[in-house]
Structure formats: structure tokens, C-alpha cells
Amino acid sequence: MIITISGQVGSGKSTIGKELAKKLKYRYISMGEVFKKLAKEKNMNLTEFLKYAEKNLKVDKEIDESQKNPGQNCILDSRMGFYFANPDLKIWLKAPLEVRAKRIAKRESFKNEENIKEKIKEREKAERERYMRMYSVDIFDKNNYDLIIDTAEYNINQVVEKIISAVKQKFAVKNLYK
Fold it and tell me: Which end of the chain has fewer CB atoms surrounding its CB within 10 Å, N or C?
């Protein structure tokens, strides 16, 4: 089974993805980590690299190609995973901007949450425009996903349990039609 986790910046994709992979004993693949690694290789911070990627579509194409065959029994943490990986379950995580800014501030030791909010908005706008331009896909369109969870309403374990319930339900339905 391939499960993709997409969502807003700071919604908990990595945290939830890693915990889910651990519980299901699946591999965890993070396209965000791939992106960060590429940024580091170019001696750029993430914002600089995102701007670079906007102008150099080859970067996205390379990353996108790597998502097409992630293999079975994996959690793919990726904005475009739902589109490329042919997943069995597509999850979207969301949370209010204030919550996401607090999480990022805590994670990255930032003090100015207003500045973080602006950076989140800029990044999401740039990503939305880039994927629309490249693939005519709106990653924020909820119709692309099977399960949408507001991570501000639940703790990590509750979110993971909701996803596991959806996996069990999906398997039950799949097995009915075999």
C-alpha cells in the first residue's frame, strides 16, 4: 500500500508521516528532505532554493520523477505525491495559520511569528503557482484527497489512529471486491 501525505506548510506532515510509518512498519520517504538536501548542496536556504526551483523547472521535474515508483508499503510525504505515486490513500493535513506559525517558530527557533506567517503565505503561493503552471494541478484542491484532517484538533497519536482507521477501511473495501 502507498499512502501519500500532503498538506499545508507546518501542518505536521513529517511528524505524522514518520509516526505512521513506524506504526505500520512502512518506509518513510520525504520529498521535503530531498528538497532541503538539494538546497544545502547549492548552499541556499529553503526560500532561496524555492525561488531557484521556480525558474529552473528541471529541479521539480527531477524530484517529481523520483515519486512515480516509490515501491510498496511506504508513506510518501510530498506535496505532489497524490498526483505522481498512484497511491492507495491520499491524505491532506491542514491547520490554522497561527498554529502552523507557532509550530515552525518552535521547530526552527524563530521569534517573530508574524514574519513566519508571511513566509508561509509566500511559500504556499509560490508552490501553488508552480504546480499549476507545470501540471495544471492545484495542490490545495481538497478533491484530490481521500482524507482531510485538521491537525490542530487532535494530537499526533489521534491523527495517526484516524489514518490507520482509514487504511483498515480501505483494505476491507479492497478485499470485498477481490
Answer: C
Q: Model's pTM, two decimal places? A: 0.84
Helical residues (DSSP H) of the chain, grouped into ranges:
13-24, 31-41, 46-55, 57-66, 81-84, 97-108, 113-135, 156-176
Q: Which residues contact 170 (CB under 8 A, 6 or more apart)?
A: 1, 88, 89, 146
* Average pLDDT of adjacent 10-residue blocks, the chain of 178 residues: 95 96 94 84 85 81 76 90 93 97 84 84 90 92 97 97 93 59
2-151 has which fold? Rossmann fold (3.40.50)
Sign of CA dihedral 14, 19, 23, 28: positive
